[in-house]
């Protein structure tokens, strides 16, 4: 969906680098870790949409209070944007857990998404897809 800045302003109530509250739902940027064949982990930031307003409020409250509330936060969500080199990434349920203060996708019910999380990918292909 491509909206102009003016159209976005009418549907987004709040936007930061990591959270969007809008008429379309509540979103959070999370890390999608990708194991690479050179021993490193590629880090992709993607948007996920919360399954409910209550779940978004719970995550927001944990973020505001910090400490153990944030450190122990786990929630389910759905990827909201495509990511190269997987433009057809499924809109399947993922589990997000805070690790070292960062929300990270840790598993999925989708075999395709689980493959992205667990398979080792070519670092050259991964890097070339990020450059485009």
List the helices and strands and how they pair.
Blueprint (H helix, E strand, L loop, with lengths): L4 H7 E4 L3 E4 L2 E12 L4 E10 L2 H13 L1 H5 L2 E6 L14 E6 L2 E7 L2 H8 L1 E2 L1 H9 L1
Parallel strand pairs: 3-8
Antiparallel strand pairs: 1-2, 2-3, 3-4, 4-5, 5-6, 6-7
Structural account:
- With 132 residues, the protein is an alpha+beta fold.
- It has one domain (5-131).
- 32% of the residues lie in helices and 39% in strands.
- It contains five helices and eight strands.
- It has helices spanning 5-11, 53-65, 67-71, 111-118, 123-131; strands at residues 12-15, 19-22, 25-36, 41-50, 74-79, 94-99, 102-108, 120-121.
- Strands 1, 2, 3, 4, 5, 6, 7 and 8 form an eight-stranded mixed beta sheet that branches.
- A hairpin with a 2-residue loop joins strand 6 and strand 7 (102-108).
- The radius of gyration is 15 Å and the shape is globular.
- The chain starts with a helix and ends with a helix.
- The model has no long low-confidence stretch (mean pLDDT 83).
Morphology call:
globular
Radius of gyration: 15 Å
Mean pLDDT, to the nearest integer, reads: 83
Q: How many individual domains?
A: 1
Low-pLDDT runs: none
* Cα separation of the termini: 20 Å
The succession of helices and strands, N to C, reads HEEEEHHEEEHEH
Instruction: Output the number of helix runs.
Output: 5
In total, the number of strands is 8
Q: Which structural class do the helices and strands define?
A: alpha+beta
